[in-house]
Design goal:
Elements lengths: L1 H11 L19 H6 L2 H6 L28 H18 L21 H7 L29 H16 L3
Length: 167
């Protein structure tokens, strides 16, 4: 939706001002924006001529991305993360502090954008999509997005910009 609005706005330029659109890398894949930030470990600390890789793969807790699973074993993952962080830090003569934040800021439920709103003013809108097959809602493994809403959503965002930033 937002990409469609961006294309339309870039082509028509029927607004006066600057529009900032935020796209989340791998938004529906395990907090992609925060995982992407880990890649700065190599880019900011390792010489360009040296080879280094930081990989965060996945923690399995169900069968589909971005779905609340029936059960997840967190304590094992948390324990291993703590051990690994402490071990790597000790190997380099340092100490590590690991903070595991479960959940998102209370302002927006389970949306990464809540972190952005803690740093900068902004707005987040919901566009009704209706329930999925059998009445299931978003973040359910049986949910099927209503593709017919893509054009409606793109039009919504473009119209919002044109009205708020009218020449």
């Amino acid at each position: 939706m937002l990409l469609g609005a961006a294309q339309y706005l870039a082509e028509t330029r029927r607004f006066d001002g600057t529009v900032v659109l935020i796209f989340q890398p791998a938004e529906e894949n395990e907090g992609g924006g925060r995982v992407q930030a880990l890649q700065t470990i190599t880019s900011r600390n390792i010489a360009a001529a040296d080879a280094a890789v930081v990989s965060v793969t996945q923690f399995h807790g169900g069968e589909a991305w971005n779905v609340i699973p029936a059960r997840v074993v967190r304590q094992t993952i948390h324990g291993r993360l703590q051990s690994l962080c402490a071990g790597v830090a000790a190997a380099h003569g340092a100490q590590a502090e690991l903070r595991i934040l479960l959940g998102y800021p209370p302002t927006m439920g389970a949306e990464d954008f809540a972190y952005t709103l803690q740093a900068r003013p902004g707005a987040y809108g919901w566009i009704g999509n209706g329930p999925g097959t059998g009445g299931c809602l978003l973040h359910n493994p049986r949910y099927d997005f209503n593709d017919a809403l893509l054009a409606i959503g793109a039009s919504y965002w473009a119209t919002l910009v044109e009205r708020e930033l009218a020449p």
